[in-house]
């Protein structure tokens, strides 16, 4: 296996750097570097969007989630991602329309222009930083734990994490957004192939899908119904998760940027449909991997289970491909989010373009190092940590949608309310505020409250302006 890893790893890293250098040769301006020339076609657009959206937690977190909480996890992600496709179509149209009027360097800069107040850009940037850095970190942590389990005496997990961050920063700084997109195309393909190879072997172990579910029912029948054996999938959890995932394209800068840089609106809409298809294709096989673990390794720790099912229970070549696939999955999300945060930082600054680009590159390195530190400190609950990230960024959706839909500057009160909501949610995560308010999870309560208050502000100002 070590030989296979050396061969495949060398090919993979060489290809990454080659794509970055190819992109660098085609980069003629700052806009090319930061915005990929804003001329992305359907195939590259949907693959980079999908690879950025589905990451390490898909291959590592979701199977373990199915193993612990059961088949209702399908509702948690697949149904939510299906709904997200429709939002991409609607939001993509209005976002591109607003960008044609205001221009686009980043969502923080666009909010500054729409609200005519820098505070809107700062609130968005800080909110994105607080919730995206941990999300990047869990990608890195997941892979570093896995590599440390494979080679326990070779390197500690923080060295593996550092290696992944360095590789990511090198090709991101060389190739810019276009280089990242080329890498995403390759990495998304590797992830899709890997997860289906493993799932096929898991189903083959049982002798078929029907027998697989029969053995799961015999082992733990609660896995085949909601709310699952641990009671996680309550109505409140599923509704709040649906809203959080639904709003990802609105609130997360790496995805809003990809909506903006598509060649035209038609390509954007077709990309949304393709992403929905990819979502089903990437999540479906994780069900089989999780059910396999529920039968064979019900009491194993997360790291032991993943090491067994993704490595030792697979043929040597597939196990080697899996290792590369995990690294690819971590990089395909981490590079996009770190680079997007750099773009958001740039959009709230001003001054000489050359100096601005230097500051942006330094910021990208800083964000990468921040993710590295957090990856060393974070826990192993990848999916739940990912959900917190989704929920946190979703709270900024009313502020963003108000800016996109309004023909006049929305009120500053919307920005202040959003900042307050983010602080309340962070307080609940640290135990200073309750997790449930008035029968709703606190993130759902805050999101609904922000949506209602923002709507009131929006309508009041529109009527006042009309009068």
What key phrases describe this protein's structure?
467 residues, mainly alpha, Sodium/glucose cotransporter, two-stranded antiparallel sheet, 20 helices
- Rg over CA atoms: 22 Å
Mean pLDDT, nearest integer? 87
Distance between the termini: 74 Å
Q: Give the tally of structural domains.
A: 1
Count up the helices: 20
Task: List strands and helices in order, with pairings.
Blueprint: H1 2-25, H2 30-35, H3 42-53, H4 56-69, H5 73-102, H6 107-115, H7 118-150, H8 157-206, H9 209-219, H10 235-246, H11 248-251, H12 253-260, H13 265-296, H14 302-312, H15 316-347, H16 353-377, H17 382-394, H18 397-405, H19 412-429, E1 436-437, E2 440-441, H20 442-466
Antiparallel strand pairs: 1-2
Structure explained in plain terms:
With 467 residues, this protein is mainly α. The chain contains 20 helices and 2 strands. α19 runs antiparallel to α20 (442-466). The radius of gyration is 22 Å and the shape is globular. The N and C termini lie far apart (74 Å). The relative contact order is 0.18. The mean pLDDT is 87.
Summary?
The chain has helices at residues 2-25, 30-35, 42-53, 56-69, 73-102, 107-115, 118-150, 157-206, 209-219, 235-246, 248-251, 253-260, 265-296, 302-312, 316-347, 353-377, 382-394, 397-405, 412-429, 442-466; strands at residues 436-437, 440-441. The chain is mostly helical and 467 residues long.
């Amino acid at each position: 296996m070590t030989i296979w890893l050396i061969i495949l790893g060398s090919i993979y890293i060489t290809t990454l750097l080659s794509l970055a250098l190819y992109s660098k040769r085609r980069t003629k301006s700052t806009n090319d570097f930061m915005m990929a020339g804003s001329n992305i076609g359907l195939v590259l657009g949907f693959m980079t969007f999908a690879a950025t959206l589905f990451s390490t937690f898909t291959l590592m977190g979701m199977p373990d989630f199915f193993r612990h909480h059961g088949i209702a996890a399908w509702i948690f992600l697949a149904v939510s991602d299906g709904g997200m496709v429709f939002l991409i179509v609607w939001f993509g149209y209005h976002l591109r329309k607003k960008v044609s009027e205001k221009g686009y360097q980043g969502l923080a800069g666009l909010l500054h222009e729409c609200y005519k107040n820098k505070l809107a850009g700062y609130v968005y940037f800080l909110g994105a930083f607080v919730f995206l850095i941990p999300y990047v970190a869990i990608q890195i942590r997941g892979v570093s734990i896995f590599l440390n389990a494979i080679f326990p005496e070779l390197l500690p997990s923080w060295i593996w994490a550092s290696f992944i961050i360095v590789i990511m920063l090198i090709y991101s700084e060389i190739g810019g957004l276009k280089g990242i997109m080329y890498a995403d195309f390759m990495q998304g393909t590797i992830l899709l192939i890997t997860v289906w190879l493993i799932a096929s072997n898991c189903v083959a172990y049982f002798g078929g899908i029907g027998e697989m579910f029969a053995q799961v029912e015999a082992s733990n029948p609660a896995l085949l119904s909601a709310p699952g054996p641990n009671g996680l999938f309550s109505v409140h959890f599923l509704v709040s998760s649906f809203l959080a995932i639904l709003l990802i394209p609105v609130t997360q800068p790496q995805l809003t940027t990809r909506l903006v840089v598509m060649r035209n609106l038609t390509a954007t809409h077709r990309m949304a449909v393709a992403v929905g298809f990819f979502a089903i294709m990437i999540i479906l096989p994780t069900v089989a991997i999780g059910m396999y673990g529920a039968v064979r390794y019900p009491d194993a720790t997360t790291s032991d289970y993943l090491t067994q099912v993704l490595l030792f229970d697979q043929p040597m070549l597939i196990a080697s491909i899996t290792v590369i696939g995990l690294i690819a999955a971590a990089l395909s999300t981490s590079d996009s989010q770190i680079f997007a945060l750099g773009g958001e930082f740039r959009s709230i600054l001003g001054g000489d373009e050359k100096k601005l680009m230097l500051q942006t590159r330094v910021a990208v390195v800083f964000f990468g190092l921040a993710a590295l530190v957090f990856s060393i400190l974070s826990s192993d609950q990848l999916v739940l940590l990912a959900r917190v990230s989704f929920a946190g960024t979703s709270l900024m959706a009313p502020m963003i949608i108000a800016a996109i839909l309004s023909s006049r500057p929305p009120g500053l009160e919307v920005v202040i309310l959003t900042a307050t909501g983010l602080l309340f949610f962070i307080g609940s995560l640290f135990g200073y505020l309750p997790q449930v308010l008035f029968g709703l999870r606190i993130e759902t309560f805050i999101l609904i409250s922000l949506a209602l208050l923002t709507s009131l502000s929006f309508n009041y100002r529109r009527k006042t302006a009309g009068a």
